[in-house]
Amino acid sequence: MAAVAAVRVSGRRLGLNAVASRAFWGRVRKEEKEVEADKVIHQEKNEPSLICPPPRSRSYHPPEDIQSYLESRVREIFGPSLPDNWQQTSLKDNRLKYHLLAQLAAELGHAVPNSQLYLMRSAEDVLNFYSTPVKDASKFDELCAAELPPNLKINWEQ
Rounded to an integer, what distance in angstroms lies between the CA atom of residue 64 and that of residue 68? Predict the structure, then answer.
């Protein structure tokens, strides 16, 4: 930046007229615009085209004894400081919340998504999450299997 200021000052001292200085500085601006245009072209080429839907999420079927399983994990991690109703155990302590959710994710193979972590405020919320089965079908598969009007068909190119 200092070099640019020095050139401008020296240009004035050398007596460069306005036309000459515009020509000099205009050339630099044109070069910058050409470089920016090249960047835009490369960015457009790098974007993938969507030919088929995104990959499916993994299915999850809760174990039949999920309530007793979760109760034992909560008692193991939170220790003797549990209320009488273990489902009312607060998850305000982020360290304990992390240990509980990480252990459950590793053992059950089903993690709480980042977008839902703030919803896990008590052990009951965790129980509700892990009690809900997840289907292995995407919305696109459901659309293909649904009874569609005769003028509407879904075909995915591969």
Answer: 9
Q: Is the dihedral of CA 121, 124, 129, 130 positive or negative?
A: positive
Maximum CA extent, the chain: 89
Report the DSSP beta bridge partners of residue 60: 134
| 0.85 exceeded by pTM | no
Of 116, 125, 130, 109, which Cα lies nearest the Cα of 62?
A: 130
Instruction: Read off the tokens for 142.
Output: 């459901």
Which amino acid is present at 26? G
Per-residue pLDDT tens for 50-70?
A: 555 555 557 888 999 999 999
Instruction: Annotate 89-117 with three-state secondary structure.
Output: CECCCHHHHHHHHHHHHHHHCCCCCHHHH
- Considering only CA atoms, give the Rg of the chain: 31
